[in-house]
Amino acid sequence: MAAPSTPPPLSEPPESPDAPDPPDPSEPSEPTGSPGSSPQLRLRAMTAADLPLMCRWLGAAHVHRWWHDSAEPAAVRAHYLPAIEGAEPSHPLIAELPAGPIGFGQWYRWADYSEYGRQLDAAPDEAGLDYLIGEREYCGRGLGTRLIAELISYVREQDPTVGGVVVDPEAANTASRRVLEKNGLRLVAIRQVIDPEAPPTGPSAIYRRRFPG
Fold this sequence. Notes:
globular; alpha+beta; Aminopeptidase; 7 strands; seven-stranded mixed beta sheet; single chain
């Protein structure tokens, strides 16, 4: 599979039954202030000029914890350039604030990656999402939640025939799971999923959201 379904690189503090979790700078949180006070997050198509940026993000410790792809320039170019040029049926995107790029998103139809999609029980009309916040200083600001919302809106605008999304972060990545839940995705299964083109990972938490209509 050319585009492994990968969770955002957000770490999670230990659970404690006796006290609330301590603050964690990489834990997604809701934006503070009035609704109009948050800078606009937008998505644009990834280009070949973004590949050095992607190398840097993939090499960052907070990303590599959950996103296990190589950060070597040749490997990044081989992985993403075919999709950028339209030779692969996935759609890589850059997430930007007015200050500049802060993360990555990607979507694809599971029908185009049917062998992997069958392991998730994904329907032919459902799409997969990949996502990360690459700039460390933007973690913990609610941007993971906003990025998922923007990705879902983008998919629905680009392809109205998509009937829903299925996403499979590692089960241990509870921060990633929370941003999906905040966007209406529901857990349907936890099981090991094998991607022969990607390094081994732990069991996946499989989430689904069907679109109305």
